[in-house]
Amino acid sequence: MQDSQSRLAGGSAIVVARAASERPDTAEIERLADAAGYAVVDAVTQQRREDPGTWVGRGKAAELAERARELDADVVVFDGGLDPGQYADLVDLLPDGVEPVDRYRLVLDVFAEGTGDKRAALQVEAARLAYMLPRLRRITKVSQLSKAVEKGNPILDVEDRIDRIENELADVAELAAERREQRREAGQGLVAIAGYTNAGKTTLLHRLADDMRLDDADPEHADLTDSSPIEDRLFATLETVTRRGTLDGFGVCYTDTVGFVDALPHDLVESFSATIDEAAAADVTLLVVDATDDPERLREKVQTSIDAIGETEGPVVGVLNKIDAVPGDEDADDDSLGERRDVLADAVDDVVAVSALADDGIDALRDRVREALPTETATLSLTNDGDGQRTLSWLYDHASVDDVAYGEDVTVTVTARPSVLERVRAKTTDSR
């Protein structure tokens, strides 16, 4: 078995897909294996119900073992989840050095390859260790557990490491919360972009942020502006990427959060809570969905996303993206998009149909975000002296200054977060 604390090192893989009632397709699991760095040397399909012992049945497992010997494969990748018992049985059946790897483990290792900041790396490691722990328990013999302490105990080592990571993540989460509060104190609106990977979240970020331009992107470049990949990929990173924007003079921080992934169990999704919290704690959460998904698939993705994000501080605006890619549906108001719009509307506070790639509907989305941000407009009276000028300068940095009139006093009309207005009212001679 490979070291549970190391990333998959690549090599050669046999992929296996199984379905109960139809011939399964291995294209997606092959793409996933490729993303993890494996060279797929064979693809095996099976049409049957799941076997509780080995997922594919002992006969097919024996065939896979022989095939792995013939091809000198490093891993056998199963397009589904292996429970600890299935994993242990397959370890016994496969040749020494050939590890069974299920879809969940493969997803985690692809995520691991994309981690670049501390929080993302810790979340991935915690999820991977939590995944491996029950499997280690099943394949570690009692005699091994009773070895002398100086020889180490792999299960206790993993448990200790999980505890240390959870403590580190608690500290990182506290720092993230402080950073959000600092942005709010600076008068910034917080907008989170969430949704499934490949829904177009990153393309949307490029449309909304002031310092990013879709037309300037090199389509061949894997990373754009500090780990914001422009192209949709099978899996993106767990990092949160934040960029500044402006809406009617009001400063906004747009944060592209982790993309949700198909077929991850809920307990693994919870391992990414430190990143998902960015979506839940925002003033506005944009839930981006792919308009090319059929309505039933769309409903599943929306529900999974809503469940993962949980309770939000602000409204959730559904963004029905890629409307230009729906055949015959170039118009966002086309009736044929109605069912998809209704599916999304059942779960969120509002829906805006867009094409981030074609820049269609983006202005309407900006207007909706601006409406949803927690701001107030007030007219303040400042002293016409040095103190008043310093307060006015501070307002330009922390609010949208709509109008300034000079007289005996300085009358200024501003739009800002309520907390910003509370802080400045104490310095004014009059306000309304």
From TrEMBL:
Pfam families associated with the record: GTP-bdg_N (PF13167), HflX_C (PF19275), MMR_HSR1 (PF01926)
Organism listed in the record: Halorubellus litoreus
SUPFAM superfamilies, sorted: P-loop containing nucleoside triphosphate hydrolases
Molecular function in Gene Ontology: GTP binding; metal ion binding
Binding site for GTP: 195-202, 256-259, 321-324, 355-357
Keyword DNA repair: no
InterPro entries per record: G_HFLX_dom, GTP-bd, GTPase_HflX, GTPase_HflX_N, GTPase_HflX_N_sf, HflX_C, P-loop_NTPase
Residues engaged in binding Mg(2+): T202, T237
Gene3D superfamilies the record matches: GTPase HflX, N-terminal domain, P-loop containing nucleotide triphosphate hydrolases
Gene: hflX
Superkingdom of this protein's organism: Archaea
Protein keywords: Coiled coil, GTP-binding, Magnesium, Metal-binding, Nucleotide-binding
Database matches in PANTHER family: GTP-BINDING PROTEIN HFLX, GTPASE HFLX
Signal peptide residues on this chain, from the entry's feature table: none
Coiled coil: 155-185
Name by which UniProt lists this protein: GTPase HflX
Domain Hflx-type G intervals: 189-377
Cofactor: Mg(2+)
